[in-house]
Amino acid sequence: MIEFFEYFGKHLIRMRKTLTIIVLGALWGLSGLYAQTSITDYLAECERKYGSDADLVNGEKYYYPYRQSQGDPFFFTNSRSAVILIHDKEFEGQQLRYDLFNQKLILDFQDIYGATSSLVLRKEWVEAFAFEQQEFIQMKGPEGEPGFFQLVTGGSITCLYKWSKDQVMNLNSGVQSYYFTEPVKESYLVIEGQFYSYRSNRSFLKAFDPELQKTLKQFMKQTKVKVNKAPDSQIRHLVEYCNSLYHEDS
């Protein structure tokens, strides 16, 4: 009888060990299935938002290097919702910052672990991007160098802005320090591939043939437009009028 109980006790212990292994294995399988489902869902969301071939989330990690300077190098201080065009693909609802000082685009996003991260987009890949009221395109500038220009209005006559910022030493401070200037705008008309820089009504008119200048000058006087101070909407209206005259003349 004693031998029977010893045999039964050993067999019961083996059964308990086997049952424990089976239960742990089942729990591990369920947790793995849950994790796999969660990761699959997350990756599907990433693919929907960022693209499956990582055209968007592709670049070097960004660290802000100007904490000792006053102001910031960006077009807008904080990231804003934007549409980005890369390789003919539109990525909507992206959080973007446009670094005017370095002419870089900073994408703020959540990484695969859910943490906020930032990276510098590959500038050569970005064809265009747009905030709510400003649209930017990449193209060759007057010196033949590629860069981002704000497209105010297009057509046979196109109006573009080139934006920049400078970092300047603060000479009024007792210690060496720097600050960023306000955004600086260079304005251009592009006619038949030729860039015409303008800063005043007079230089604006010089982009046109003499026979059109008189009509344009009268229109600018009637609408009381000053191109160095006019909002985008007024410049857009002016250039659209220029396009209408240009088509009549051609």
Detailed description of the structure:
The protein has 250 residues and is α+β, with helices and mostly antiparallel strands. Helices cover 34% and strands 33% of the residues. The chain is built from four helices and 14 strands. The strands form two sheets. The chain has an eleven-stranded antiparallel sheet with strand order 1-6-5-4-3-7-8-9-10-13-14. A three-stranded mixed sheet has the order 2-12-11, with no helix packed on it. Strand 4 and strand 5 form a beta hairpin. The longest helix has 49 residues, at 2-50.
- Secondary structure tally, helices: 4
Contiguous uncertain segments of 5+ residues: 1-37
Query: If you average the pLDDT, what whole number results?
Result: 82
| DSSP strand content | 25-35%
Oligomer: single chain
**Residue share in helix:** 25-40%
Number of strands: 14
What spatial order of strands do you see in the largest sheet? 1-6-5-4-3-7-8-9-10-13-14
Which structural class matches the secondary elements? alpha+beta
Largest sheet: 11 strands, antiparallel
Structural Rg: 31 Å
Layout of strands and helices, then pairs:
Elements: H1 2-50, E1 59-61, E2 69-70, E3 80-86, E4 89-99, E5 104-110, E6 116-121, E7 126-130, E8 135-140, E9 146-153, E10 157-164, E11 167-169, E12 178-180, E13 184-191, E14 194-198, H2 201-205, H3 210-222, H4 232-249
Parallel strand pairs: 2-12
Antiparallel strand pairs: 1-6, 3-4, 3-7, 4-5, 5-6, 7-8, 8-9, 9-10, 10-13, 11-12, 13-14
Helix pairs in contact: 3-4
